[in-house]
Amino acid sequence: MSIQVEDLHYTYSSGTVALQGVSLSIADGERVAIVGQNGAGKTTLVRHLNGIFRATGGRVLVDGQDLAGREIAELARTVGYVFQNPNEQLFARTVRAEVEFGPRNLGYDRARRDELVDWALTATRLTEHATSHPYHLSLAERKRVAIASVLAMDTPVVVFDEPTTGQDHAGVRDVSEVIAQLHARGRTVIAITHDMDFVAENFDRVVAMAQGRVLADGTVHEVFADAEVVAGAAVEAPAMMRLAQGLGWTESVTTVERFVAVLAR
Amino acid sequence: MITVDKLGYTYPETARPVLREIDLNVPSGQFLGVVGPSGAGKTTLAQALAGYIPHVLGGEVTGRVEIGGLHVVDTPLPDLVTRVGMVSQNPFNQISGAKFTVAEELAFGLENLGVPRQDMLIAVREVLRRLRIEHLAERSPYELSGGQQQLVALGAMLVMNPDVLVLDEPTSQLDPAGSRLVFEALGELRSRDITVVLIEHKIERLAEFADRVVVLVDGELRMDGPPGTVLAAPELVEWGIGHTRFTTAAVRAGGRWPSGAALPVTLDQALAGFGGAR
Amino acid sequence: MATLDFYQAGRSRVHGWNPVTKLSLSLTLVVTAFALPVLWWPVALLVLVLLPAVLASGVQRRFLATMSRFLLPVILLLFVIQGLFYPGGGQVLLTLGPLSVHADGLLFAARTALRLVVLTGSFLFLLLTTHPGDLMTALVARGLPPKISYVVSATLQIIPAFRQRAQGILQAQRARGLRTDTGLVSRVRALVPLISPLILGALSEVDERSIAMEARAFGSTARRTSYTVIPDSTAQRLARWLMLLAALTAIALTTTGVVS
């Protein structure tokens, strides 16, 4: 499902300007990473995609339809949103009930619910914890419960806000696997993250933000090759890109896979 | 300086120990990285070093933890706080609530210790500068983003100038430039002879900044040594800790990584090894 | 932050006064207004002291708006009830069917209303012109136990922080399709997913919070120092002694029956 953001502005009631003219067009099935400085407006931007924030200027269209005036609960059918802090959403007595909450709200029938919940639990490696109380799990596991609870809603667009924070290597690999599965199902995936190697390995496109504006928008290589963008967005190029640059290579290299392939030539 | 001798710990109302037979000596001024998969007991170890176990969290401690010659279990917490400071994962919970601005929040610990005002002013200004948060000095700590709150939580400990600083993923919500800044600031603490114990998933940063790395798996110390050796060990993959991209690249490069050369864990090492490969 | 909303930052001289001076002023106004049973006395306090102080600090708009919002309904009710039902009676001013309005009742209502205006106005003036942090710092410097100051400061800040979190939870659950807008049943049903994360979250954070306070040496027995210095002056110290004297005089005059 496509997304259009047109000259989006957002100013908090306190007067703090968070977004000052963001335009973005995301095609159906794209995997887009949003990176940038703390306070650049990344979260504010993606919270417009499911109506949590309402533009104070400009507009947002999902599947060609203006979001103005539409309910968050209604938009939940289209855009799934995994919040950064799982503690702000987990409430059920078991992991399974937690994951089932979304699909139930959306009125999916029993068979579809079961199928989706099973898939979401498997994808997040939580099947063995299905009957545990979410608060008996570690923070990293709770974070995966939050991801599963949104996956099970089976939305065409899934937004993640810093999905790898606090995850160990295996946890990050799980999130990568989830994104790959969503991609295989033709979903649009948007993620905010501070992990640039995770970006290089899982996303087609990078949007770098600073001070409420889009600083750069392009492939991983395009965005990180620009030293001014890297400095302006307070990021670092992915490890393999720094290595290839240091070696004086001219090829586009952002991942280990690509590095090894180029090396073998 | 930290001396840990056969440390074991079991949480209240549980049977299985979270830490088992930990032996660890960390000299003054050393920057020690602690890695391990989720649930290995890393946070518990940090809390034991800081004295929160058993003083605040209860539970059963066996063995000994000494900080600068003080026996942690027998020392009341107020006497420990000038020796050891801890920055935990959730920055929101570390804001005292007693103060209305970031500058006052940073000074709070010093006020409680009765440090003269002139010294406080200097210490607070220094930390604001070092963490580049001068622009936040007059803001409310509650209005900050998670990343900014992490910097304030770190600053609140730095300002107290403890002999040992224990940090549990202190940069998880920071952008890469902010995280690098924090690692640099921690690296500079060597010159003040402050011991740093850092729990971190970002092993590429540890490879660059730490003097030494220990691996905690299932409550036990499995490995201990210089970052170059420990972080390149093949077992790390099987333990769910993983390798840096530089290490993985060299492993996958097979014959194109110079035979006999140690596997790289930093950019510089990778550049040196791959430099003649093509 | 909603709880801090009372405080209106400004650069007036009144803002610069030591919070204890402003607190003394408020207390003196209230004590004398209640102690002296003279009808015109609260009026004099309002006109000669409180209103000039409010005007000098530039907070008059918020002052008048808040006062009328809080007090008008109370005062109106006071006059109606006391006018009609004041025991004793006195001269009947007006008869409305079975009800009659008595002069004594109206007098009592006026006296109470004026005192209420002084009470509310004095403290509103204090809150509007004094940052709660400065007030706490100034009081701790004068011997208020830091624990009490902490409870006040933390409450003022953590409540808005929790309100913000409650808002975050509401958004997170709506983003999972929770409807809170369709009738009573759905609203009641929506309470569990909204309230339990708030409570579970707060409970799971108790340990970490107490650790955070310990880590900052809050349990220390050292003699505390203060980072923030609250300005004071000889004139203000003198003023505070005079105000104390005035309050004591008012109490003495009333209890000895000199003024009645």
Automatic annotation (TrEMBL), chain A:
Lineage: superkingdom: Bacteria
ABC transporter domain location: 3-236
GO molecular function: ATP binding; ATP hydrolysis activity; ATPase-coupled transmembrane transporter activity
Family as reported in the entry's similarity comment: Belongs to the ABC transporter superfamily.
Protein's recorded name: Cobalt ABC transporter ATP-binding protein
UniProt-annotated location(s): Cell membrane
Gene Ontology CC: one annotated term: ATP-binding cassette (ABC) transporter complex
Main localization, broad class: membrane
Pfam families: ABC_tran
Keywords: ATP-binding, Cell membrane, Membrane, Nucleotide-binding, Translocase, Transport
Family matches, as SUPFAM superfamilies: P-loop containing nucleoside triphosphate hydrolases
UniProtKB/TrEMBL annotation, chain B:
Keyword presence, Aminoacyl-tRNA synthetase: no
GO MF terms held by the record: ATP binding; ATP hydrolysis activity; ATPase-coupled transmembrane transporter activity
Keywords from the named record: ATP-binding, Nucleotide-binding, Transport
SMART domains, A to Z: AAA (SM00382)
Pfam families assigned: ABC_tran (PF00005)
Protein name, UniProt field: ABC transporter ATP-binding protein
All copies of domain ABC transporter, residue ranges: 2-243
Organism, as annotated: Kutzneria albida DSM 43870
An example Gene Ontology CC term for this record: ATP-binding cassette (ABC) transporter complex
Similarity comment: Belongs to the ABC transporter superfamily.
Taxonomy, superkingdom: Bacteria
Automatic annotation (TrEMBL), chain C:
Keywords for this protein: Membrane, Transmembrane, Transmembrane helix
Subcellular localization, as worded in the UniProt entry: Membrane
Membrane topology recorded in Swiss-Prot or TrEMBL: Multi-pass membrane protein
UniProt entry tagged with the keyword ATP-binding: no
Signal peptide: none
Protein name as it appears in the record: Energy-coupling factor transport system permease protein
Pfam family, one: CbiQ
InterPro entries: ABC/ECF_trnsptr_transmembrane
Ranges annotated as spanning the membrane: 27-51, 63-86, 106-128, 241-259
PANTHER family: PROTEIN ABCI12, CHLOROPLASTIC
